[in-house]
Amino acid sequence: MSSSNPALQTVSAELPAVPLTLEGLSVLHQMFRFRWPEWRKLSASRQQEIAREAAAVLSAPEEAGQSAVYSLLGHKGDLMLVHFRDSFDELNAAELQLNRTALQEYLEPMHSYLSVIELGLYDSSVKLFRQLAERGVAPLSEEWNRAVEDTMERQRQAMRPRLYPKIPDSHYLCFYPMDRKRGEQKNWYTLPIEERQRQMEEHGMVGRRYAGKVQQIITGSIGFDDWEWGVDLFAPEPLVFKKLIYEMRFDQVSAVYAAFGQFFVGLRCPVQKLCEWLGVSEERSLST
After folding, report:
1. Cα–Cα dist 260/282, whole Å
2. Contact 52, 288 (CB under 8 A)
3. Greater model confidence, 249 or 240
C-alpha cells in the first residue's frame, strides 16, 4: 500500500528498480533421446563396457563437481543430466568429458538449459535502498556502492548453503523455465520495486507452506538462455509438484505476470544403476 506522506512517496519513487541478487553454482540441464535401435545392435560385452565408462565419468568425486541422471517421462526425451559446477568453464569441461565417451553416440540432444543458482534479495534491497535514500545518499555513489557491497557480503555468508547446495537425492525432479511478462498491457519490469517485493513475498509464502515436502532451487538465466529463470523442484513423490504449482497460480505474481516453458519430470537414476537402465547386466555380459 502506498503512503500518503509526500516525502515518503518521493523516496519510494527514487528507489533503484533493480533488486540485488546473489549467484552461486553454475547449472546445466541436458535432455537426450536414447537411440535404442542402435544400442540393441551392440554385443552385451560392448554395452557393458560403454555403460561402465559413462558411469565412471558421471560419478566423479564431489570435489570435481556434481552430476545426476534422471529417467524422463514422456516424449520430450529419455534421459536428463543435471550438472552443478563452480563455473561455466567447469560445465563446459563436464559436457566435453561426456561427449568423449562412447555412450554419446547413442544420446541425441533434445534440449538443454544453462543458468546459475540465484537468490533474489527483494526484501533486503528495498530495506537498504529506502534507508540510503532517506539519508540522502545518491544512488551509485561511492557511499551507496559501499553499503550495497557490505550487505551483499553479509548475505553471501548467510546464504552460502543455498548458493552452493548438493543436488538433492529425492526420487523425483520437475524442471521448468519461466519468464516475467513484458507485454503491452502487463509488464513486470515497469512495476515499482516495492510492489514487486510485495508480490514476491506473497509468492514466497506459498512455497514456504511446502517446506519439507519439496526442495526448490531457483536459477537465473537472463543473458544465458531463452528464458529468465529455471526452477528445479525435488520431492519423494510427484503429486506435490502439481499441488504446489497449481496453488502458486493463484497468487498475483504468477496469475498476472508469469509465463512458463516446457516441463520436464524425471526419476532419479543413481549412477550405479545406469547399467540397469541401459538393460545391461553382469550375468548377460559374462555369458557372452
Report:
1. 43
2. no
3. 240
pLDDT digits (tens, 9 = 90+) for 152-210: 999 999 999 999 999 999 999 999 999 998 877 889 988 999 999 999 998 888 888 88
Annotation says 176 is catalytic: yes
The single-letter DSSP state of residue 187 is: B
Long-range contacts of 10-13 (CB under 8 A, 24+ apart): 11/130, 11/133, 11/134, 12/130, 12/192, 12/194, 13/192
Q: Which of 159, 85, 173, 148 is nearest to 119 (CA)?
A: 159
* Alpha-carbon span 246 to 206, nearest angstrom: 10
For residues 209 and 20, the model is more confident at: 20
pLDDT of residue 82: 98
Is the separation of the CB atoms in 79 and 34 below 8 Å?
Answer: yes
- CA 237/CA 213 separation, integer angstroms: 9
Output the pLDDT for position 287: 38
Query: Is pLDDT of 133 > 80?
Result: yes
Residue 173: count other Cβ atoms within 10 Å of its Cβ.
26
Question: Using one digit for the tens of pLDDT, what is the confidence trace for 219-236?
Answer: 999 999 999 999 999 999
- Among the options 70, 176, 210, 257, which is catalytic? 176
**Residue 39 to residue 23: CA distance in whole angstroms:** 40
> Is domain 24-116+271-286 in CATH 3.40.50.620, yes or no?
no
CA 217, 242, 114, 125 torsion-angle sign: negative
CA atoms of 124 and 120, how far apart (whole Å): 9
Three-class secondary structure assignment of 236-261: CCCHHHHHHHHHHCCCHHHHHHEEEC
Q: What is the pLDDT of residue 208?
A: 83
In the chain, what are the domain boundaries?
Answer: 24-116+271-286
Q: Residue 188: what residue type?
A: W
